[in-house]
Structure formats: C-alpha cells, structure tokens
Specification:
Helix content: 25-40%
Distance between the termini: 79 Å
Number of domains: 1
Number of helices: 1
Shape: rod-shaped
Order of helices and strands: HEEEEE
Largest sheet: 5 strands, antiparallel
Amino acid sequence: MMTAKYRVQGFTLMELMIVVAIIGIMAAIGLPQYNQQVVSAKRADGVQMLTRVMASQERYFANEITYTTDLTDIGLASAAAVSSSESHYKITATACGGGIGQCVLLTAVAQGPQSADGDLTLNSRGAKTGNWP
C-alpha cells in the first residue's frame, strides 16, 4: 500500500490580503507626499522665469531709466503676459510703489494643477511673496 504525501505550495488568501493591505497603507501615505514634491518641483519653473524677466527689466532700466509693463520691450513674445518655459505659470508686469519709473512688480500666476500652490511675486526692490523655495 502506497501513501502519497502532498506538499502544499503557494500563499494563502489571508497572506495575500495582508500584503494588499500593506501596499494600500503605503500608497495612502506616499501618494500625497509625491504630489507635494511634484508641485514643489514645478514651482522652480515660475521662479526661473520671474528671475529671468526681472534681469531683463533691470537691463531695460539701466538703458531707459524706467521699467516697463510691456514685456515686448524687454524681448519677450507677448506684451501683457508671457508663459514660463514649461507653461506652469504666466508672468505679468505692473507698476508698484511710486510708479513704473521707480518700481516694477512681476507676478507669476500659477496655471492648471499648479494653481493649488498659489502665485509668486517679485518686485524690483527684491520683495517676494508666495511659496518661494
């Protein structure tokens, strides 16, 4: 008489459910952190464009003894608002303080999903508002 011994292989349903629960908990913790890092990384696009436009404004001021709200005067494509390199922000220029001859305020308005992060501003006196890094 032969008796056969079978060896059970594999995972039980309980073990699989525990693994699925652990993965779910890790995703619930990790996904918001990931999204926050993505928004923070995209903020660099607005900061880079603001500093680029401000440098152009300062060169314009050195030649004309005034700032400008017309962004084509400083070599940009649009007069009113220009998009950042990755289109996460639109940059505008307005007068601040004592008028356009003395101060310019640049505003980077967040676009699309980046709008949850808020807008960034920079004026020619170095004052910044928003979530600067």
